[in-house]
Amino acid sequence: MAGEVKSGQWITVKVVKEPRTAAGRKTLKRLFEQDPAVRRERKRAERSRHDKPIRRGGRIWINHPPRLELVDTAPGTQQRIFASVSVLRDLKSVEKYVEIAPA
Prior knowledge:
three-stranded antiparallel sheet; alpha+beta
């Protein structure tokens, strides 16, 4: 992985196998959230989901809807992210579950 991909370029990360640990799934989800297409979708979803103020006990209560899960770690999922040093370090921890190629 380190030989073919360098810091400062766009890479394509494809999930080959579902990560066994919760930490591995969380790492992949966090990395996949950096994809520009996912960021645009996140921004669009935030604009369309409004907080709903209601009255509870004489006070205004704002019900915040839960955050939507936009990315998945199922095998075959593919995302395009920018390879910084921290991203490459995180990918090193889950390298047996992913396939990395320059975009």
